[in-house]
Design brief:
Helices cover 76% and strands 0% of the residues. It has helices at residues 4-26, 40-59, 64-84, 91-112, 117-126. By secondary structure, it is mostly helical. The longest helix has 23 residues, at 4-26. It contains five helices and no strands. It has one domain (4-26, 46-126).
Length: 127
């Protein structure tokens, strides 16, 4: 369980990350963008949504189902808005978003819940 002060920090981190990801997902695309391998953008979607899922999970005390639904809705909204703004919108991007969300909630959350965030926050305050 995350304490109130920690929860506030996670909320701030979540909203900063969410706004940054929203901007990056919708900013005009350059055709010559650097990619390290063929499906680099899909891996980026997965990483972004694992991170958002982690921060959202720690920031809010909703049920897991509600958190998953909200994150899926955000991913779908991003894809629809990308199509409206001239960016490439694709089903594989939406699937990558889902993979990131489910990776966090059904794989990583097990280990994340074992972390004592109070100890991490206390160490950082003492330094």
């Amino acid at each position: 369980m995350v304490k109130m002060e920690q929860q506030l920090t996670f909320k701030k981190l979540f909203w900063f990350s969410q706004l940054l990801s929203f901007y990056l997902f919708l900013m005009p695309s350059k055709g010559d963008a650097v990619t390290f391998f063929v499906h680099f953008d899909k891996v980026a979607h997965i990483i972004v949504f694992v991170g958002l899922a982690f921060l959202f999970d720690k920031a809010y005390q909703f049920s897991a189902d509600k958190k998953i639904s909200i994150l899926i809705s955000y991913g779908l909204i991003v894809e629809v808005l990308q199509a409206q703004t001239g960016r490439e919108s694709s089903v594989p991007d939406a699937i990558a978003d889902l993979v990131g969300i489910f990776l966090y909630f059904y794989v990583f959350k097990y280990w994340v819940d074992k972390i004592d965030f109070a100890q991490i926050f206390i160490k950082n305050k003492q330094q």
